[in-house]
Amino acid sequence: MTAPHPPRPERGETRIPAQTPATLIYNPRAGSSHRAPLAALCGALQDAGFAVTPYVTQHAEALGDLLRGVQGTVFLAGGDGTLRTGALHLMGRPEVTLGVIPMGTANNVARALNLLGDPLGVARRFGQARPVPFDVGRVRGGWGVDYFLEACGCGLFADILDDYGPHQAKSPVRALGSMLEAFSTHRPLGLHVTVDGRPLPSPPVAVLEVMNTPSTGNGLNLAPDAQVGDGLLNLVRVDGLRRAPMLTYARALRLGTFHRLPSVEVTVGRHFAIADSGQVWHIDTELRRSTEPGGVVEVDVVGMSLNVLRS
Fold first, then answer.
1. Of the chain's two ends, which shows fewer C-beta atoms within 10 Å, N or C?
2. Is 185 helix (H, G, I), strand (E, B) or coil?
3. What CATH homologous superfamily does 20-128 map to?
4. Taking residues 13-28, what's their average pLDDT?
5. What is the pLDDT of residue 11?
6. Residue 150: CA atoms inside 13 Å, Cβ hemisphere, count?
7. What is the bridge-based pairing of β-strands 198-199 and 144-148?
8. pTM value surpassing 0.85
């Protein structure tokens, strides 16, 4: 039986294109949610060609149930915390394509995908976005196994985060106090490091970060050349014996020239092994420390773990 032809539109009538079904996870507590109310965001995604089913949640713990069994396109509208939790639930699921709508403070993942600007404008641009692979980093230490979207590391930045308390209410004054405290008391770490099985000689380091995205934390642009889908990670080390003044680093981070400072070295690879002397580690914004130091922390890339929309 032949299917009937759809009726032709009358002269002057505009045919509305079919909408692609999609799921929207919306966090109303995100830092810039006031710039993208739920109804307006649904309308912007409709303009981009998506018919979204929205789910509102303020709690990252609820994302596992919301995302279990979901297929097709999933938009996550929130900060980096919402994005990290949601994305880790979607790892290794090729039937899902992730759309990042930045409504947080730093939006490091969105920045790596060129999804910058007003959240509603970003949503409308998804009509021309294309899916690309997105790698995830894996960390194995004495505490177990973790995954990161942005970065993991030890040294000065991890110590600042540890003093600040990543899950406490945000406070610029407290953040400045943590930064000053860490800079004044930090002692360089003498760590044996191997990259893809090869020893990497190094003086004691003030900072050691393994980067998947160009920036991490509060927009710390440590590895501008990092690419999220190239199957590689960027190891960034700061020589603790030639450490520059804090304002030098702050200016370089603002200008995107941190990686060019004489005390900074960047090494690209797939697998890193770093001596564990009991130092605190950050995994994105989570903190970890081995209960039995003396072994190694292994960091490797899990290539093409996610499909994401890129502008």
1. N
2. helix
3. Probable inorganic polyphosphate/atp-NAD kinase; domain 1 (3.40.50.10330)
4. 76
5. 42
6. 27
7. unpaired
8. yes
Q: Tokens 């713990």 map to which residue?
A: 61
- Scan for tokens 């709508």, then name that residue: 101
pLDDT of residue 33: 81
Closest-CA residue to 41 (of 100, 120, 110, 117): 120
The β-bridge partners of 136 are 302
Q: Where in the chain is the domain with CATH 3.40.50.10330?
A: 20-128
Separation between Cα atoms, residue 259 and residue 223, nearest integer Å: 6
Q: Where in the chain is the domain with CATH 2.60.200.40?
A: 137-304
pLDDT tens across 211-268, in order? 999 999 888 999 999 999 999 999 999 999 988 887 898 899 888 899 999 999 999 9
Q: Quick one: DSSP state of residue 189?
A: B
Q: What is the CATH number of domain 137-304?
A: 2.60.200.40
Q: Which residues pair with 171 in a beta bridge?
A: none
Reading the block at residue 79, the tokens are: 């900060």
